[in-house]
Amino acid sequence: MSKSAAILFVHNEVDTIGWWLAHHATIGFSTLIVCDDHSTDGTLTALSNAATLYDIRVQSADTTLSTRLERQTRFHENALAQGHDEFDWMMILAADEYLHFETARSVAEFTANAPGTTIPVNWCLFGSSGRLTPSAFSPVETFIRHGLLSLPDHRVVRHLVQPRSLDTGLPDPFSALDKNAVWDEARILHFAASDRESFFKRDSSATPEQAWKNFDRNDAEYDGANRWLPGSRRIASFLTQASLTDLYWRLKAVMTHADKSTLQKLGLTPDQLSVSSSSRSQPQFRFCTLGATQRLMLDMQTGSLVPVGETDTNFGRYNPLIMALEVSDTDIWNACLFVENPLPGRYLSLAGSPTLLPMVPLHIKIAENTVQSPVSGDDIHIAIPDHALTEIDATISLYSRMTSFMVLTAGGHNLAGLLRGIERLPAADASALGCAVAMLPFEEAERLSDAFPGVVPRNVRSARPPQA
Predict the structure, then answer these.
(1) Are 233 and 140 in contact (CB under 8 A)?
(2) SS3 state of residue 230
């Protein structure tokens, strides 16, 4: 069987590195070879956690080389040389470049009938699609508008190469500037612009506005790469939950060792963590099914949410949705959505929620009668039959599904309460922890992420409040 490897040199891409890994594993690369250039945002930690799940070979850049370009070139040369006898095909990519096939189902299929030992693939430059701030969703679904085929930048290529046939030197991305770009079979989705805030944060050019104008191309719409999203989300869910499990153990260590240095980073004092300091009464929960004459259920065959009548229920196929509502005297109630019977997969898919967890955190705006994701900050439309939530008995089984979340949030939706909950929770529960983090105030979630870089995924951090 053909073996292939994608090669990546990366610096400070913690919020998107999981999507890059998930995408290129999904399209069929056997191995991902990644060199971290001494990131300061937790990228290396995220890579190390991911490497426990897949064949991701992580290394650090050579510090004896003074410039980033020198370190990158040395890594690329070494990766191709070391893969000479192991891999049939290899490809150098950047963190904002995603390989996409128009019809082929995998790298192996795409390269099976290659006419030569090198396959050039042209850039396709995607703009911001009007997005101003970072997104927790995959770049593939966030940025769907790109420049026209005739754009000169599209003549830049990345090469799938057979390392055994390589002459000296690296593949030249500018080797086809005299040829028109072609996207008939494949393209490199190049998310050079991303959102405006992220672009200006990382851009180092003397004329950033001019650079933004060059990269922010939104002339045509393309969603053909969405076919990779189910696989990418599945893999990204594993990566998310691996990071959250790591976060649990790190927080556990803080409480066990009374780590004052970390508590200071979190803006907490030991007094705030004492049980007696919490006067909050235990939260009360109501459990509801979604619908009255029909109930909204997860179709286990298609993965979609469908209304099902009582006489149509097939418990081998349909899994009822349950919403646990945390009773509050405010206009916004916290809620968790999950299925009655535990999922065989890793996450519950809900349009508009990026969390990739078996349990989906939600905010219910009572006065407005709307549902919102605490992570994206956007309204979520759930087609509830009859527009009715039907309260059901709070059984032991339902409470057991919520126990970890209840423990983590019993002291309130704040960092002090979360750490008190961590101390009482005997084992890691990534889904419950992710929901609890999602419901933290924005500033506290950011402090948590800063204190533990690389293990607080972007897709569970609460949304930034709207500007006043």
Answers:
(1) no
(2) helix
What pLDDT score was predicted for residue 277? 45
Q: What is the CA angle 322-326-332, rounded to 5?
A: 110
- Which DSSP string corresponds to 371-432? EE-TTT--EE----GGG-EEEE---HHHHHHHHHHHHHHTT-SSHHHHHHHHHH--S--HHH
Report the chain (468 residues): mean pLDDT per 10 consecutive residues: 95 96 98 97 97 97 95 97 96 98 97 93 97 95 97 97 89 95 98 94 83 95 96 96 97 94 94 65 88 92 90 81 92 94 87 96 89 94 89 91 95 94 96 98 97 97 79
The CA-based angle 199-205-208, given to 5 degrees, is 50
Count of CA atoms in the C-beta half-sphere (13 A) of 25: 25
| Centroid of chain to Cα 457 | 7
Question: How far does Cα 19 stand from its chain's mean position?
Answer: 6
Q: How many helices (H) and strands (E) does the chain have?
A: 13, 19
> For residues 442 and 465, what is the distance between their CA atoms, to the nearest angstrom?
7
Give the three-state DSSP class for 348: coil
Instruction: Give the rounded distance of the alpha carbon of 388 from its chain centre.
Output: 32
* pLDDT at site 207: 87
Cα separation, 335 vs 198, in Å, equals: 31
Interatomic CA distance for residues 426 and 227, integer angstroms = 40
Tell whether pTM > 0.85. Answer: yes
Which residue type is seen at 330? Answer: T
